[in-house]
Amino acid sequence: LYLYFSLTGCVTCLDHDEHYILTFPNGYGRSILTVPWIELGGECSISCSKTGYNASIVFHTKPFYGGKKHRVTAEIFSPNDKKPFCSIEGEWNGVMYAKYSTGENAVFIDTKKMPTIKKKVRKLEDQDDFESRCLWKDVTYNLKIRDIDAATAAKH
């Protein structure tokens, strides 16, 4: 069974007045007959029109035999450059390592050591009709009360 999701988003860094357009990996439901898990796979990109910096990211799916889960590689480019100034590899839900064009190697991020930060979300009444939480509020509510039929109806 393969579940397919594909989206494009925009992240705004208010402190720098930067807007990043990004694509997301595909999501796959795996091993539904044993212990299910979600796998991310595919190519993604991030770009900032203001700075010109961009990145290409690949979420690698696990081969049928051997291999590791949750592998990711990425290349980060300066404006107008064809060669990346930084390459990243590791696990998207673990440790990722950076290799810079200067030859320096370093831990890029260790997701296991990151603190959990509570999201700041506007109240539902202050959101536009097509903002995520407003749009999906009835689905979310019905899933929380375990009314699958009502959740399905709200989703339609």
Question: How would you summarize this macromolecular structure in one to three sentences?
Answer:
This protein has two domains: 105 residues, Porin (Beta Barrel); 38 residues, no CATH class.
Task: Tell me what the structure shows.
- With about 160 residues, this protein is mostly beta strands.
- The chain folds into 2 domains: about 10-110, Beta Barrel (Porin); about 120-155, no CATH class.
- The chain has 3 helices and 9 strands.
- Strands 1, 2, 3, 4, 5, 6, 7, 8 and 9 form a 9-stranded antiparallel sheet that branches.
- A hairpin with a 4-residue loop joins strand 1 and strand 2.
- The longest helix has 8 residues, at about 135-145.
- The chain starts with 7 loop residues before the first strand and ends with a helix.
- The model has no long low-confidence stretch (mean pLDDT about 90).
